[in-house]
Amino acid sequence: MKKVVVVILLVLPCVAVKPQASAPLREPSSISVLKFGWNKERIGWEQDPFAGPIENFDEMRVRARNEKRIMDAKKGGNGSEVSRAERDAKTDEALISSIHKNTNASYAFVYKLRLQNNDSRSIKSVDWDYVFYDATTAYELGRRQFTSEEKIGPGKSKELKFFIPTPPTKTISVNSLNKHERDGLSEAIVIVRVEYMDGSSWTRQ
Hints:
By secondary structure, the protein is α+β, with helices and mostly antiparallel strands. It has two helices and seven strands; from the N terminus they run βααββββββ. The strands form two sheets. It has a four-stranded antiparallel sheet. Strand 3 and strand 4 form a beta hairpin. Mean pLDDT is 77; it is low at 1-25 and 45-54.
């Protein structure tokens, strides 16, 4: 007598899983973020029409940071990260070029961060990101990446500052001032890497 095997298939409803929004990460205990912020500053309204384009030190550091991002991404073999780094670098170059060429008044952006060193070692440099989120959905809208080569002694604090043409997000204009531009934005600082004077370092995993 043959046995009959009955296979019962259970049909389960498909549940769509929404991708999780980006969220700020906790910083190492050796560093405290005391204060951070950004603001717009008007430039170009007193520009000398006979003066050539002048690249400030912050712009040079932005270019150096972009080149380092591209090189690191290529070494890591991450094609999508290479494309993203190159795209961000082109955006920064276009903004820098447009500000130097524009004889009309426009705006640049100051990003500030005050850090305290809680470690027994002196800090040599800090890689840090200023990240902007949608206040409602918590999705990332913009990220500005900086490298500050500033010595911060044990127990000391210092303000790190950059003046660059790149706005926090694409929704913020470089040619006009709008007091409501901050509405709907949430902000956070992410410490990416800390290098100490003794040669040791901490890197976010």
